[in-house]
Amino acid sequence: YFFYFYGLGPKSQLADEETYNVGFPRIRLDAMHKTSAKSYLGFRYIFDAFDITRVDSGGFLDQKLFLGYDGGSISGIGPLFILDTRDNIYSSMTGYKVEASATLFNQALGSSFNYSQVNLDISGFIQPFKKYKHVLGAQIISESQWGDVPFFALSQVGSPKMMRGFYRGRYTDKKQLSIQAEYRMPVIWKLQSVVFASTAFVGDSYDEFNFRDAIPAYGTGLRFVLKEAERLKVRIDVAKGIGEPVNFYVTFNEAF
Q: For a surface tag, which of 7, 97, 133, 221 has the fewest beta carbons within 10 Å of its beta carbon?
């Protein structure tokens, strides 16, 4: 694979874009036990073994400026809790979901780096005009890391699901707080439309978060319903992050 890297923090520049090639196996394992009608408790295991095969000459990684410039493995495990009252996991109209996890990465587990991270993901949905099947959804994600985190495992801003309009990893650091809201409405037959906006903060610590360094994005999209009962959809979004080129996304189901 190849990835982009721009340096750390909210002031990283698009002009500093560099690429690096990497090969790796990846494991993501969630093992959950249903503790009640709507809640689950278990553990999460994460493993990557990054073999960086090429970096841009003269770039950040070529200059060995960031931990993990020569690759390495991450291996971590920790508790995972989920509370989910949504009416549909593919396209929610009501309810909420809370997902919380804490993961410890340690050499005793086969990791090249020792650090810890805590993630919190909360999303909720309401119908302001139930008769017309309009839906307002909101999501907040907090990702926090402490210790010796390699650059390739840092919290990353941008994806087809959160902070659309930014390439994944456009902004990265040990702490991230991202918020998005989306309004969904039917158009005609099986066609639906959405508008959305989001913003994020990144930094080495929460003390560095500043409204002047907020990273906003916005966009709109169309949905075509494939199966009405299950609410399975094809999603087409166009989004723009401030200072970034326009990004397009074509995939299945809602972003969150």
A: 133
CB 111 within 8 A of CB 75: yes
Beta strand 115-126 pairing with 135-147: antiparallel
First-to-last CA distance in the chain? Answer: 26
- Residue 181 confidence (pLDDT): 98
Do the beta carbons of residue 125 and residue 135 sit within 8 Å? yes
Cβ partners under 8 Å of residue 127, min gap 6: 93, 94, 133, 134, 135, 136
Confirm if 233 and 30 have CB atoms less than 8 A apart.
no
Cα(153)–Cα(113) distance, integer angstroms: 10
Instruction: Write b or e for each residue in 124-135: b if 16 or more Cβ atoms lie within 10 A of its Cβ, otherwise e.
Output: bbeeeeeeeeeb
pLDDT band at 256 (very low <50, low <70, confident <90, very high): very high
DSSP structural state of residue 24: -
Q: What is the pLDDT of residue 94?
A: 98
**To 5 degrees, how large is the angle CA 115–CA 5–CA 53?**
85
Q: What is the three-class DSSP state of 117?
A: strand
pTM: 0.94
Q: Which amino acid is at 117?
A: Q
**Cβ atoms 52, 20 nearer than 8 A:** yes
Q: What is the pLDDT of residue 164?
A: 98
Rounded to whole angstroms, how far apart are CA atoms 46 and 77? 6
